From TrEMBL:
InterPro entries: Lipoprotein_repeat, SCO0930-like
Segments for region (Disordered): 174-205
Organism, as annotated: Streptomyces solicathayae
Source taxonomy: Bacteria, Bacillati, Actinomycetota, Actinomycetes, Kitasatosporales
Comp. bias regions, Low complexity: 174-185
Protein name, per record: SCO0930 family lipoprotein
Keywords noted in UniProt: Lipoprotein, Signal
């Protein structure tokens, strides 16, 4: 009996240790929800049939809810629109934006799962008027952005992948306004006055030297990243839900190899209770602020005495002790 109890206690301790090390120590890109934050794939993909039928699989047929849309920056594709889980959204050249028309049906929809308008909210900086819906031939609804019906791709298995780019010469990653994603024009990159790279050259998360706050974390657009004091890192919890997310959009999952100058301790994907996938630093969920209009803004700093910019080590910047 004593031997059995010792084994049981040891197993329990091991389980607790596993949970503890999953948050607060470097565990790679694996999130608590089991969804890894994958590395971005290069632009370009094998040219299959126009509908991508060769990739059809029954597992991809169900419509995917849009949720809180986000934007990630790829060095080859530019700004790319994603759903709440961080998966790339695509548009199909054989569809139409005016009037909105969806033509991907049957086997095509297995390879290119339809994105449902359920819970769709625009990413920060994008007017909600860009979002709409179209009624498909089977009577179901599909999200449109800039009039274009939105899809995911069955061969994208992780956030940050864009394996559907260029398939059949008709499928392309969508930009935040529904147009085809494209890198910024020549001369839009380079460095700003702080010496930090800007434009399409920014990593998924990097560091900016702010004149008042010092070194703070920014996303791929150069927008300030924030933490919420009412959240928790262990156990990992969020207190920003519902309407709060309209003002404080989550930072979508970022590949660990797409960060610069930031700790990767506790750099995991948080599977939120509302189904949204969120990046964390040192296990703290991170956000941007809808009130920041352009890179360099820090209008969210100190809001309500609970929102603060984030240091490269994941700490609150400028918060009272």
């Amino acid at each position: 009996m004593k031997t059995w109890r010792r084994i049981s206690l040891a197993a329990t301790a091991a389980a607790v240790l596993t949970l503890t090390t999953a948050c607060g120590q470097d565990q790679g890109d694996q999130g608590l929800g089991g969804a890894p934050a994958g590395a971005a794939k290069p632009a370009g993909a094998p040219a299959e049939g126009g509908y991508g039928d060769a990739y059809g699989s029954g597992t991809g047929a169900a419509a995917k809810s849009a949720g809180q849309l986000a934007v990630w920056n790829d060095k080859k594709l530019g700004k790319v629109l994603t759903d709440a889980e961080g998966f790339t959204l695509y548009r199909f050249d054989k569809d139409s934006a005016s009037p909105p028309t969806a033509t991907c049906e049957g086997e095509c929809a297995k390879a290119w799962p339809v994105v449902s308008p359920d819970g769709a909210k625009p990413p920060a900086g994008v007017d909600a008027v860009q979002l709409g819906e179209v009624t498909r031939a089977d009577g179901s609804k599909q999200l449109t952005v800039g009039g274009w019906p939105m899809y995911r791709y069955a061969k994208d298995t992780k956030p940050g992948e864009a394996n559907g780019q260029g398939v059949g010469g008709t499928w392309f990653a969508a930009a935040p306004d529904g147009k085809k994603a494209a890198p910024a024009g020549d001369g839009e990159g380079g460095a700003d006055d702080s010496g930090q790279e800007s434009g399409a050259d920014l990593a998924g998360l990097s560091v900016r030297k702010d004149p008042q706050l010092g070194e703070i974390v920014v996303d791929s657009r150069g927008m300030t990243v924030y933490r919420f004091k009412k959240d928790s890192a262990w156990p990992m919890k969020t207190a920003c839900t519902g309407a709060c997310l309209e003002k404080w959009p989550v930072v979508a999952p970022v590949a660990k190899n797409d960060v610069k100058g930031i700790t990767t301790k506790g750099f995991v994907t948080f599977a939120r209770p509302d189904g949204i996938k969120q990046q964390t630093i040192d296990c703290w969920p991170i956000y941007t602020f809808a009130g920041d209009a352009e890179p360099g803004d820090t209008n969210g700093q100190g809001v309500g005495g609970t929102w603060y910019a984030v240091s490269p080590q994941g700490k609150l910047v400028g918060a009272p002790k």
